[in-house]
């Protein structure tokens, strides 16, 4: 009976070891299949700004400067017309210069990464 018990115990041990080896092999295969790598790229992001303070300041300062210069021209009622025309022209030019110097768009860059299967 000792031999029979030893034989059964030995057989059970062989089955357990073989089963463990199969489970380990199947997990190793799944790990290889699930291997991935990180792929990154840089993308350009353009953001439109709302009406900026630089454009407002340029318009106001241009209008004031244009009005002062226009007031220097002409006399009487013509002086008033020249002041208004100078203010309007100065405001337009001031706004244009401010927008050229400080654009309404802001450009930035960001890196985007994602996991992709390797192989």
| Spatial arrangement of strands, main beta sheet | 1-2
Tell me the Rg in angstroms: 40 Å
**What is the β-strand count?**
2
Strand content: 15-25%
Run of helices and strands = HEHHE
Mean model confidence by pLDDT: 75
Count of DSSP helices? 3
Question: Largest sheet, described in full?
Answer: 2 strands, antiparallel
Sum up the overall morphology in one term.
Answer: rod-shaped
Residues in helices, as a percent range = 55-70%
Instruction: Give the tally of structural domains.
Output: 2
Structural class: alpha+beta
What is the distance, rounded to the nearest whole angstrom, between the alpha carbons of the first and last residues? 56 Å
Low-confidence stretches: none
Write up this protein.
With 119 residues, this protein is of the alpha+beta class. It folds into 2 domains: 1-34; 41-117, no CATH class. 64% of the residues lie in helices and 22% in strands. It contains 3 helices and 2 strands, in the order αβααβ. The chain has helices at residues 2-33, 53-71, 77-101, and strands at residues 36-48, 105-117. Strands 1-2 form a two-stranded antiparallel sheet. Helix 2 runs antiparallel to helix 3 (77-101). The longest helix has 32 residues, at 2-33. The two termini are 56 Å apart. 12% of the residues are buried.
